[in-house]
Amino acid sequence: METQLLQIAEEFGSPVYVYNSEKIIHQYNRLTEAFNSVENLKLNYAVKALSNISVLKLFKTLGSGLDTVSIQEVQLGLRAGFEPQDIIYTPNGVSLEEIETVASLGVQINIDNLSILEQFGSKHPNTPVCIRINPHVMAGGNTNISVGHIDSKFGISIHQIPLLLRIVENTGMTVNGVHMHTGSDILDIEVFLYASEILFETAKNFKNLEFIDFGSGFKVPYKPGDVETNIEELGTKLSKRFNDFCSDYGRDLTLSFEPGKFLVSESGVFLTKVNVVKQTTSTVFAQVDSGFNHLIRPMLYGSQHEIINLSNPEGKERFYSVVGYICETDTFANNRRITEIKEGDILCFKNAGAYCFTMASNYNSRYRPAEVLFHKGKAHLIRKSETFKDILNNQIEITI
Q: What sequence ranges are listed for the domain Orn/DAP/Arg decarboxylase 2 N-terminal (predicted)?
């Protein structure tokens, strides 16, 4: 694959994001297999992780649904060919008008605050809604991606269940699903199962449920020997508990997840070219043709992406700090062991399939890179690199 990646960098230029469809399919099948004892399983791919329409079309062929957080993601899903009923919309802090517009499209609505719940239920009591619960469980690899704790802006607190039930009763609305998402990079499945028990307890309050959505946040390995969520063990334990709940509830419900990173992170790599090797009094910098405008996660979350030198994979290892070309500190790696780097070499950042392009920007008026999907043995360009015309697009020049 290293030779193919070098060819892609040569053909499409750098920097460039590359995704491997085989890995996406493998991860999707791995998750469905882990929960094969559940009668009704629905995986709703989290569009925010990687929203290229060709990737969405790939998920449609696998039988996936979509988890969306904005009306624009909903529109992308519809454009990719998904049926409205196969899309769940879980916004946070958006206007009632946006929620009403999405509901009018036939998409499943998921509401995470009492104010909107009451307003929506009063105006649209015949539109079933899912309710997002905050279980007050801290889970996730970083405070910025832990969303189920007591200070989180997400979800309706479990301590507000009496208020929630009063709104449901007063409006006459139907609740057809309950949902939680504790955070990303979950390692301790016992914590996840504990939060699930809170969701099961909440679900007992509603008699017309069709599904229970357990969110996602499963951790993937970021370096050799790194730990990850034990999906197989979670599948065995949660499936049994879910099936027992359905038996007590009186009918089979659908078990839903909304995986994003788990499905696409490992499929992606980010290729950059080394512009300069700079020796200072204390450090050797490898300065690449990118920055946090293209891959912000190391700076935002402290995430670690394995970096390999595709141009010299068998060379002698040296210590490098890999940095970008942005006019701020944009360090991808500090004193990392990488095979000897020369100017012009192509470096490969692994685990670049999730939250990399979707969080990219035009900071410093730099272009956002191309995206390539390696599918069935061939590299397909699925997004062109931007040009100066794109930078000026929508700007209006006035006479000064």
A: 23-265
**Bind-site residues:** 217, 297, 301, 328, 355
Q: 350, 332 in Cβ contact below 8 A?
A: no
Comparison of pLDDT for 186 and 139, the residue scoring more: 186
**Is the predicted pLDDT of residue 151 greater than 90, yes or no?**
no
Strands 378-383 and 370-375: antiparallel
Chosen CATH of 2-16+265-385 out of 2.130.10.10, 2.40.37.10, 3.10.520.10, 3.40.50.1980 = 2.40.37.10
Calpha distance 136→158 (Å, rounded):
7
CA angle 173/179/180 to nearest 5° reads 140
Q: Which of 357, 303, 311, 356 is nearest to 331 (CA)?
A: 303
Number of Cβ atoms within 10 Å of the Cβ of 150? 12
pLDDT attached to residue 1: 79
Residue 45 pLDDT level (bands cut at 50, 70, 90): very high
In this structure, the strands spanning 268-279 and 129-134 are unpaired
Q: Which of 130, 246, 327, 348 is catalytic?
A: 327
- Taking the CB of residue 174, how many other CB atoms lie within 10 A of it? 17
Give pLDDT, residue 222. 87
Domain 21-264 has CATH 3.30.1300.10: no
What's the whole-number mean pLDDT along residues 353-365?
97
Judge whether residue 148 has pLDDT over 70: no
65-68 and 87-89: which strand pairing? parallel
Examine the residue annotation and report whether 327 is marked as an active-site residue of this protein: yes
Which residues, including other chains, have CB under 8 Å from residue 90's CB and lie 6 or more apart?
67, 68, 69, 110, 112, 130, 132, 179, 258
Structural domain boundaries in the chain:
2-16+265-385, 21-264
> How high is the pLDDT of residue 49?
97
Residue pair 178/130 in contact by the 8 Å Cβ criterion: yes
Annotated binding site for pyridoxal 5'-phosphate: 217, 355
> What is the pTM for the complete model shown?
0.94
Please check the confidence at residue 2 and state whether its pLDDT lies above 70. yes
